[in-house]
Structure formats: structure tokens, C-alpha cells
Sequence to fold (247 residues):
Amino acid sequence: VKQYYVTNSHEAIIDEDVFNLVQVELQRRSSMRRGLRNSSPFCTKLVCGDCGSFYGHKIFHAKEKHSKDVWYCNRRYQGSNNCSTPILAEDDLVRYYLQALSKLLANKNRCISACNAQMDKADALDKMRMKREKAEAALAKDMAKIQALVRENAYISQDQQVYRMRFEEMSKQVEQQKAEISELQEQELRLIGVREKLSRFINALESIDAEPVFNPTAWNCFIERVLIKQKSLIFEFKNGENVEIKI
Fold:
């Protein structure tokens, strides 16, 4: 006999929004597990415009015993078709980033207003959650019917062929409901991720009241990724805006 499980059967140990945010972060990290071995804020943010691979960190050692932190495409020296995207010194990356951030800050109030407008659509999350909870309640009822059917078959003699047909039909319906709930959960997680991303973006933007300086925490709040081309860097900010800096 198949086993089924019901959500909301007891009081939650942690807040549901906190749990969902953790799931969002776990999904993000699972897609880039290898890159997260490096603790640099640039890790998994710099993308080669030629092949789409991440940029990796290296240290160049000069004869004068001075070292230099640089980043270049992880596939730059693999095979015969090497990427033509540039090797970038970490100091230059910071400088280009601050240039892009300054351009964004020139329209700071407009950016914040646009983000707040997106945040005001939070009722979409509530509607999604209500739809998911309604589907879970329906699932719980159908699971209870299956359990009652199994108990009835255990104690009352009946046509086993008819019983199996009823059981399989009800089980099929339950599986369809579970698939629908799973899709609703994924949509809910995506909405939560967007809401949290915009909230952190707004807070980081509002905290800047002078000439911007590099801060790893702010960098992670602002930057979705940086697409590196031969002669320019495209900074993709988490509010959806792109700023191109020529190099």
C-alpha cells in the first residue's frame, strides 16, 4: 500500500517564510556547488561572454615577488578554441563595479520607487499560498478517503478487482494533486526569492549616502552577475537594470 504524507498536520518548528527562503538559497547553491568552494564575493558572479563559463580566481606572481589577484574564464586555456574575453585584475573589477554603481545611484530615487512598486505586488504571494493551502486541504481529504477504503477492505469482504480499481483511481488522483502542489510550491519559492532579493537591494541602495566604496555584502545585494565581453563589462543588477562599462 502506498504511503502518503500531509502538510500542516502539526505546529511548525520554524516560520514558513524563513523555511522557504532557506529552500530558495539551497536551490541557488545546488546549481553552482563547485564555484562556491571559493569564498570571494566575485565567485559565481563573473560570466564569460564567449562560452558562458564562470571566471576563476588566480594569483599571478611577478619576478619582483609581487603577487596580483586576477580573474579569467575557467576555460580560457582548455582546448584549441580559447575564449577571447580578457584577464581582469581584481582591483580593476572593483573600479569598474564602482563606476557601474555610480551610474545606478544617479537614478537612486527612481530605482527605489520602481522596486517598491514591485514589492507592492506581494499579494500575489498571498494568493499563491492560499491556492497551495487549498490544494493541500483537498489532498488531505482524498488521502483520508484512501485510508478509509483500505480499512474497509481489511475488515469487510468485497470484490478485490473492484477494490483495486477504486484504489488505483483514487491513487492516480492523489498523485496528480501532489504534482500540482509541487508546482505551486516552486512558484511560491520563486516569488519569495524575488521579494527577498528586492528588499535587500532597496536596503543596500538606501544605505549609500556618499561616494560608494566596495563592500562585499553590498556587492552581493546589488549584483546578479557580470557578463564579461572583449571590450566591456555588463553589470546586471538585481532590480533588472543593466549597466555597461567600457574597458
